[in-house]
Amino acid sequence: MSAEVVECGAVAAVAAPSATAMPAEVVDAVEAVEVVEAVDAEQAFGRLEHLYAQLLAMEEKGAALARARSAAEVDGLAKAAAYRTADLTRADALVAEAEACVREAEAALVRLEGAEGDAAEKAAHLGDLRLALMAAGTQRGLKVGPAQNAEHALAQALEVSPFDTVEEARAALLSADSLAALSAEVEAYQAAYAEALAVCQQLEGDEGPEGLE
């Protein structure tokens, strides 16, 4: 029995170094993770600080982007209003032309009183001209609403814009490429800042309970 005890003790003595080595490896691994996390946290807060340093400049670019977009909106509405106004002007001209034709035909009919054949022909022609006048008037009526709506939309856009006139808005226009590039830059910064802020807030949240303990 004593030999068996000695043998078991020897086995235990041999096994003991391995048993004590495992906690050391775990500790090393935990410390390594903590170091990595500390480095990651430092990088995260450093990135947020770097982005925050650009905030003022990016706010100015954001304001420039908003101004350029507003200018583009005003310009587009001004073009639409100009088109609708021109369309209504053309309709007015057609109505005026039709009215002139009717007046001329009426005068001709008066002059032909007594000449039954010619009068009948002129009367039929006058009827056709009056129908044409009605058609022109109807077409004009259909164009009044869109023209008024376009002018109203333009006036509203100018009212909420930083511009007093269409000319002032057009002076602030950017080319399509410049507008796209500025938009992409501002949106990329906003996304990066939001992401960095969320990471730092998460890190602070993870550290919170430890600090309370």
3D structure, described in words:
The chain is mainly α and 213 residues long. It is 92% helix and 0% strand. The chain contains five helices and no strands. The chain has helices at 2-53, 55-111, 116-160, 166-171, 176-212. Helix 1 crosses helix 5, helix 2 runs antiparallel to helix 3 (116-160) and helix 2 runs antiparallel to helix 5 (176-212). It is rod-shaped. The chain starts with a helix and ends with a helix. 8% of the residues are buried.
Estimated helix fraction = over 70%
> For the residues shown, what is the average pLDDT?
83
Approximate strand percentage = under 5%
| Most strands sheet | none
Instruction: Give unreliable regions as ranges.
Output: 1-22, 26-36, 209-213
Give the SSE layout.
Blueprint: H1 2-53, H2 55-111, H3 116-160, H4 166-171, H5 176-212
Helix pairs in contact: 1-5, 2-3, 2-5
Features:
single chain; 213 residues; mainly alpha; disordered C terminus
Give a summary of the structure in a few sentences.
With 213 residues, the protein is an all-alpha fold. 92% of the residues lie in helices and 0% in strands. Helix 1 (2-53) packs across helix 5 (176-212) and helix 2 (55-111) packs antiparallel against helix 3 (116-160).
